[in-house]
Design brief:
The structure is a single chain. This protein is an alpha/beta fold. The chain is built from 9 helices and 24 strands. It has 2 domains: 83 residues, Urease, subunit C, domain 1 (Roll); 286 residues, Metal-dependent hydrolases (TIM Barrel, Alpha-Beta Barrel), CATH 3.20.20.140. Helix 5 crosses helix 6 and helix 8 packs across helix 9. The structure holds zinc ion (ZN). The site of zinc ion has 6 residues, from loops.
C-alpha cells in the first residue's frame, strides 16, 4: 500500500477543525499532516473529501452483536468478523465484542476467539468485554438469573485476559470478596462496575483497588439518592474513572444524559452502543439466551418487556449526544473516540488524527451522515 493523501476535508486535529490540512497515510499509519499547497509525493493516491469532516474512527467498548450475529452465540473468529464488519458502516473502527453472562466455558471460548481474531488481523477488533456473570441478581436486567455466579479464587486463577488486546470485565463489586478487584486488575483486566446494587462506600473501595469505569451509567445500578449516593453517585463523583453511556433516547432520559455530561464532561464519558444483532442487519428478531427479542420503535425488548440491549449505532449515538447536550462535534468525538481509546490504554495510537497514529478514520457529511470508514489506511466501507 503506497501513500494515500486525504485532501479537501475538515480535519479534526489538535482538538479543532482545520480545513487547510492534508492527511497523508502510509502502511496504515498517519505519516504527515502538510498544510494545503505543499507538494504531495508523486504517486500518492488522492482521496478528495469534498469538504466533509475527517474524524478519528469511533471506538465502541460494548458491542454484543451486529449483522444478525450475537457474540454469545458465535464466540468464534467468523462471528467477530461479522460483528465488526456490520458496525463499519456507522463509523466504528475499533470495538470490543461483548459477552453477556454465560457459562465459564463460553467466556473461555470468547477470549480464545478474540485472541485469534486479533492475531489474524481481523480489522477493528481491539479486545473483549466480559459483562458478567459476576453480577447482582437484583440488577441483572436481561441477564439470565441462572447464569449469574459468585467469583471465587479458583475462577480468578482460571480466568486469563487476552494475550494482545484489551480485556474489560464488568462486575458487581458488592458480590466480591475484599481484594478481588485488585487481583483482577493485577492480572491485566480493566474492571468496571455494572449490573450492581452496591452502595457508595463499596464503589469507593473498589476504585481504590483499581476499578476504572462504569458500564452503561444509570442502567442496572443503584441510583443517586439524598443519603445513598449509590453506584450512580459514586460514578458522578469520581474524576478518575470512565463511564460508558447508552444515548439511544430510550435507555437514558435526555435530562440524565445532560446531567452526566455536566458532571463528567467529554473526557471521561464514553458513548457505547450495547448493540445487539439487528444493528447493521435487516433482521429485527433474535434469540438472547433462549429468550425471543424483537426491535420495536428502535428498542430491543424481550417477551417480558425488559430492555435487552439496543439497536443503536455509534453515528446515531454521536448525533443524539450533540442534540441532547449541545456539545460540539469535537467534544462528541472525544466521547466516541479519544476517551474510549484512553480508557483502553490505546491513547498513543488511536482516537486522534496525529502523526504516528493509526490511520483509522470516519468521514462524515455536514449533516453527520457517515460517508466512508477507513481502518489501518484501508477503506472498509463507503456510501
Ligand atoms: Zn448490561
Amino acid at each position: 500500500m503506497g501513500e494515500i493523501a486525504y485532501i479537501n476535508g475538515k480535519v479534526l486535529a489538535e482538538g479543532r477543525f482545520q480545513d487547510d490540512l492534508t492527511v497523508i497515510t502510509h502502511e496504515g499509519l498517519i505519516t504527515r499532516l502538510p498544510t494545503a499547497g505543499e507538494n504531495l509525493a508523486a504517486g500518492a493516491q488522492v482521496v478528495d473529501l469534498g469538504g466533509d469532516y475527517l474524524l478519528p474512527g469511533f471506538i465502541d467498548t460494548q458491542v454484543n452483536g451486529g449483522g444478525n450475529v450475537l457474540f454469545n452465540e458465535s464466540p468464534d473468529v467468523e462471528g467477530i468478523r461479522t460483528i465488526a464488519g456490520a458496525h463499519q458502516q456507522f463509523g466504528t473502527t475499533g470495538l470490543l465484542p461483548t459477552l453477556i453472562s454465560d457459562d465459564l466455558e463460553v467466556i473461555h471460548q470468547g477470549v480464545a476467539a478474540v485472541d485469534e481474531a486479533i492475531n489474524s488481523g481481523v480489522p477493528g477488533v481491539l479486545g473483549i468485554h466480559i459483562e458478567g456473570p459476576f453480577l447482582s441478581q437484583e440488577r441483572r436486567g436481561v441477564h439470565d438469573a441462572r447464569k449469574l455466579r459468585k467469583l471465587t479464587a479458583e475462577i480468578i486463577s482460571d480466568l486469563q485476559p487476552l494475550e494482545n488486546g484489551c480485556s474489560v470485565l464488568t462486575v458487581a463489586p458488592e458480590t466480591m470478596e475484599p481484594g478481588m478487584i485488585r487481583e483482577l486488575t493485577a492480572k491485566g483486566f480493566r474492571v468496571c462496575a455494572g449490573h450492581s446494587n452496591a452502595d457508595y462506600e463499596v464503589i469507593k473501595n473498589a476504585i481504590e483497588q483499581g476499578l476504572c469505569g462504569f458500564t452503561h451509567l444509570f442502567n442496572a445500578m443503584s441510583q443517586l439518592g439524598a443519603r445513598e449516593p449509590g453506584v450512580v453517585g459514586a460514578a458522578l463523583d469520581s474524576d478518575t474513572t470512565w463511564c460508558g453511556i447508552i444515548v439511544d433516547q430510550h435507555h437514558v432520559s435526555p435530562a440524565s444524559a445532560r446531567i452526566a455530561y455536566r458532571c463528567i464532561g467529554p473526557k471521561k464519558l464514553m458513548l457505547v452502543t450495547d448493540a445487539m444483532p439487528p444493528v447493521g442487519s435487516p433482521d429485527t428478531d433474535f434469540t438472547l439466551l433462549g429468550k425471543h427479542v424483537t426491535v420495536k420503535n428502535g428498542v430491543c425488548i424481550d417477551s417480558d418487556g425488559t430492555l435487552a440491549g439496543t439497536a443503536l449505532d455509534m453515528s446515531t449515538a454521536l448525533r443524539n449526544m450533540i442534540n441532547i447536550t449541545g456539545c460540539s462535534l469535537a467534544e462528541a468525538c472525544m466521547m466516541a473516540s479519544h476517551g474510549p481509546a484512553e480508557f483502553l490504554g490505546l491513547q498513543n495510537c488511536l482516537g486522534r488524527i496525529e502523526v504516528g497514529f493509526n490511520a483509522d478514520f470516519v468521514v462524515v457529511s455536514p449533516d453527520l451522515g457517515v460517508q466512508r470508514t477507513i481502518i489501518g489506511g484501508r477503506e472498509v466501507w463507503a456510501r
